[in-house]
């Protein structure tokens, strides 16, 4: 019974941890499907997390925090698009510059606005997205396995977790079943053909970056006022890079990318449960080695098991319109 409970709790944590990963990975999918490489997912996550926590603390509203987080992320996405689409700058350099800028800007603004070094003040319960409990979840929690799945895995998550899960089929439908998705994929594969058809390549890429900014904004908000109650320096902990790894591992397709996010989140949930545990025949594994597990898994998968991942043909290539 303890083993069943441990498994249920690990899967519960996996679902929670995977939420910002899924949103960030799908944000990168929209950007790269349009031909824009977005290394700056990490920066947008941090920027949104800070803006959401600061706005929620100042107003006492989680929804205003969400809108602030999305607004900050979209603004950063537009900076990246302006540098890479309008001025055809190096997309990797632009993304890394945003990451470095935001990593330092959040703590500086926290100190200037709130007098807190590297973090914002705690937000109240009313300014957070609290867990949603399904009907009869408490009563069914003692029922072995089925009741635990319903009460622990299905129930008890905040709204953004359910938004992330519902967004996956919606994003897949947009990419493969709508005119916008067709044009998005065409811009990432053959921008010359799209331009010849009278569709603005720059316009499509800007729209894709807006979608990218919105999804990253929701992901960053989940970090600061859903999973936690404040912004902390570097609280994304490389999650933007893990999202990019999941996108590559999923070969820029929705369902494989979703499962890659679950895999990385599962590794993170397991490492949290293994810290300080005395494993028979092994002993207590150092905390540093346990914490490295998700990143080690990322390297191993991308190095030896992902196979040949072919990105969209125009990904990372600035489009120059022929005269």
Helical proportion, percent range:
55-70%
* Number of DSSP E strands: 2
Uncertain residue segments: none
Number of helices: 14
CATH topological fold name: ABC transporter involved in vitamin B12 uptake, BtuC
| Measured distance between first and last alpha carbons | 71 Å
Question: How big a fraction of the residues is strand?
Answer: under 5%
Shape, per Cα inertia axes: globular
The class by helix and strand makeup works out as: mainly alpha
Q: How would you portray this structure in words?
A:
With 323 residues, the protein is an all-alpha fold. It has a single domain (2-305), classed as ABC transporter involved in vitamin B12 uptake, BtuC (Orthogonal Bundle), CATH 1.10.3470. The chain has 14 helices and two strands, in the order H-H-H-H-H-H-H-H-H-H-H-H-E-E-H-H. It has a two-stranded antiparallel ribbon with strand order 1-2. Strand 1 (278-279) and strand 2 form a beta hairpin. Helix 11 packs parallel to helix 14 (293-305). The radius of gyration is 20 Å and the shape is globular.
């Amino acid at each position: 019974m303890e083993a069943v409970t441990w498994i249920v709790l690990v899967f519960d944590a996996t679902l929670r941890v995977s939420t910002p990963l899924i949103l960030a990975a799908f944000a990168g999918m929209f950007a790269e499907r349009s031909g824009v490489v977005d290394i700056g997912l990490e920066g947008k996550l941090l920027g949104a997390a800070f803006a959401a926590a600061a706005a929620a603390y100042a107003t006492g509203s989680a929804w205003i925090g969400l809108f602030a987080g999305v607004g900050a992320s979209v603004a950063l996405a537009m900076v990246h698009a302006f540098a890479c689409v309008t001025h055809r700058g190096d997309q990797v350099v632009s993304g890394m510059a945003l990451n470095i800028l935001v990593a330092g800007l959040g703590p500086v603004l926290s100190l200037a606005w709130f007098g807190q070094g590297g973090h914002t003040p705690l937000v109240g319960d009313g300014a957070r997205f609290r867990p949603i409990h399904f009907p009869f979840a408490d009563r069914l929690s003692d029922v072995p396995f089925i009741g635990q799945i319903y009460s622990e895995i299905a129930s008890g998550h905040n709204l953004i977790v359910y938004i992330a899960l519902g967004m996956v089929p919606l994003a897949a439908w947009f990419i493969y079943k709508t005119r916008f998705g067709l044009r998005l994929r065409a811009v990432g594969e053959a921008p010359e053909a799209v331009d010849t058809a009278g569709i603005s390549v720059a316009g499509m890429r800007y729209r894709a970056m807006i979608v990218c900014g919105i999804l990253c904004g929701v992901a960053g908000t989940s970090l600061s006022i859903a999973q936690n109650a404040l912004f902390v320096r570097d609280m994304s902990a490389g999650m933007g890079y893990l999202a990019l790894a999941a996108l590559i591992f999923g070969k820029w397709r929705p369902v494989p990318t979703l499962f890659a996010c679950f895999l990385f989140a599962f590794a993170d949930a397991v490492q949290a449960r293994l810290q300080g545990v005395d494993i028979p025949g092994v002993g207590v594994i150092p905390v540093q080695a346990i914490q490295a597990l998700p990143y080690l898994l990322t390297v191993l998968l991308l190095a030896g098991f992902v196979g040949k991942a072919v990105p969209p043909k125009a990904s990372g290539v600035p489009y120059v319109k022929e005269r």
